[in-house]
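Why do we bother with a discrete structure alphabet at all? Because it lets us treat a fold like text: something you can write down, compare, and reason about line by line. To make this less abstract, here is a complete entry for Disease resistance protein RPM1-like. Read it the way you would read a sentence in a foreign language you are learning: slowly, and without expecting to understand everything at once.
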Amino acid sequence: MALPTADLLIGKIVTIFENEASSVAGVRDEIDDIKQELVSMKAFLHDADRKKAQAEGEATWVASVRDLAYDVEDIIDEFMYHMYEQGSREGRFARWFNQTIRIPKNVWFRRKISSKLKNISRMIKAIPERNQRFGVGGLQGTCSSTCDDACRWVQNRAESSLFIMEDELVGIESKKQELMDWLMNEDQEQMVVSVVGMGGSGKTTLVAKAFNSETVKRHFNCCAWITVSKTYVIEDLFRSLIKEFHQGRMEEVPADINSMTYRELLQVIINYLETKRYIVVLDDVWDTKLWEEIKISLQNRRLGSRIILTTRKEDVAYYSYGVQSHIHRIKPLKLNEAWELFSSKAFSPFQNKCCPSQLESLAWDLVEKCEGLPLALVALGGLMSSKNSSEWIKVYNSLNWHLTNHPLLEPVKGILLLSFDDLPYRLKHCFLYCSLFPEDYLIRRKRLIRLWIAEGFVEHVKGITLEEVAEGYLMELIFRSMLHVVWRNETGRPKACKMHDLMRELALSISEKEKFCVVYDGREVMEEVRARRLSTQTTEGKIKFCTGMSQLRSFLVFVTDTSSLSFSNTLPSGFKLLRVLDLEYVPIDILPKEVVYLFNLRYLNLRATPIKKLPESIGKLHNLQTLDIRNTKIEALPGGISKLKNLRHLIMYRYTREHKGFGYVNGTRAPANICMLKKLQVLSCVELEGNIVRLRDLCASIQKMKLLHYLFLMASDEEEALQVNALQSPPPYLRMVILVGRQKKVPRWFFSLRSVTNMYLHWSRLEEDLLPYIEELPNLGRLTLINAYVGKELCFRSGFEKLTHLQLFIFPLLNKITIEKGVMPNLQSLSLDDCTELNTLPEGLQYLTKLETLRLELVPEQLVDSIRKGGVDHGKVQHIPEIIIPDFYTKEVEGSKLFEVIHILGIKECQI
């Protein structure tokens, strides 16, 4: 594998050269020369990655290019930092001083940079000369033999699954039966069955067991098993199909098959299958292009034929194949199944093949590390079977090294590495970056996206935002089973994901070799940082600084026990080129004074730190894109915030324990000049005081924030009027609107929220009916109203086409809810809480055929009685799978499940 990290870096440097022409004018000749060399370096790295250079000499060559690219980045960033320092001085005297006294210093500095660039250029040009002198090849030809061997090894291993004995398998019987039921049902239409899961999850083994079943074989007239390589040739696949069909029926294969043309091969298959019910397995499919090429040969004769494909990519599994389809997602083995499989391999040399008591705890840790991945359990179990008791702990502590260096774990490395190698360049950087997070860490979608953007990993695509491009990257990694979704929102959009432990170990190994990033967990003494990114993960002691930190572009700190961690309120001077500083939960109460001099900083995360204020000089961070001060003690922003002209995300609210009360969240006071931030996409949460002029100015500013998609405004107290009617034309891309405070009337601009998906109105106490203003919003998926309306009736007359979640909390006078037929056709969840006058079930509830959950709390017992068996409305709730009521209602509602409700959430944590 080549070293992909330098490719994006070179692209970034070339962009700086093009965009900062005026700043770098003093070294223009040297830059033009090195720019051409960098473009050639970039092309070289693309070739190296495509051809999978594996020889030691070639790897050294690629590493040299990477290191030189890093050197160029250091020189350019140092130069830009110097120019920033000169340009940041203000005032007439300062300008005169710079033009006279400091001119010699600038000339000297430019000469210094020029000399460094010339030296780098000479070193770049010397690389091919040195390689030629020592006989190192130039990545000529196609894939190396080592790469070919690896591909053949993976293919052979897949096909060997056809011959694994049944008693060697664990947890497969029910999955096998589900596949067989699909394959042998009475439906005569052609069917495609996709089995999807990450590499090593047992897809091929499962399909092989179903395919080899005598019952299945008797059900079909002919069968074929084809292992699809990533670089398949369609004619070769056709030849394999023909051979498989004929040999399976003990028939003679056409003698001239190897000389047949594409058309002749296609004709043979179509004629052969014309009257036959067939089953075809396409194993390890990487692209939907395969189906488009092969489907013409596998025509639908309505004879009950079946096609099974295995894939590690969700977009392949969920592709529209034009025929009936089923998807089987491979789930990890349960813990007891994983233990059984691991034990069968690891303890075979031990007495009675049982785990020795002294190894049991460590063995369980190793099993959990595999996270139910069969390939890893088998390979790791086989490795441990050859180790004595004293070696087990060594393997566990150095699993990263063993994964990439021990031959017995080669199966795991090879299969996982295939997924990584198949990634486009930019996605490789994004994937490796995820390894900076601790093991089993829930990575928030928005946090990850903002970090990628700050690092410069996300390319500019005309017509869409960087955030949308980055989300596409994330979805691609999820589709490829490189990341696993742990938490989705109500629309199915991922909110948090995690890396499989072994994927993370592989990523860390690659990252350390490429000097992309390194993780410090306190188990070893760190004296020098040899990477561009550092993640410190420790639960005790001080965070120590060491040499090499001047090269860092990202510094992230993760703590699990803030009480035992101490962090200095100063940063080393070498941090001046940081792009990312993530100190979430770090126990610091003062922002280190050095932070405001980090001119390169794009991302500053202070979430959940005890910091009480930001300095006025925060405005020096002209490149800052994300400022996260949520759940800090900062009550007001300084005026200097208005100078952050590139700020895209401003996140600053604090939760309380008041739940549904007005003060469930506190905002942060913002200066009037916040209107200067034209690039804001997230504004959350501004606390407003009842100054009419200020409110109008803010509304006028919000109208100019054309990219804003998240708006959270809050009155200073529950009696303060939140007058936002001055906002006549809201930003077109608003997706979430949260308004907390009294509203005299419904804002008329609600009609215009064509993109909004989530709306929260809290303590609005409207006398005017809100529903007519929002019922036709085309994308509204979640509506939460908390003490938002003081009327007695609510009537949902039309619309709400995409609404899936409706929460009505604290309606003190509400005594009737009417839902007309056809309204809210996709509603899945309805919550009624603290509606003390609502004695009857909402009229028309029976029309909500997709309703899955009805949650009732603090409603009259008369309402609950009405839906019990024998109650007047019992028949109207029979279609609802779950009715959730507090435990003080003692009688069970027949036909639904009864749950104890601990609390009802309004706005969930982690929505930013």
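What the structure line is telling us, in plain words: The chain has 26 helices and 31 strands. Residues 5-142 form one domain.
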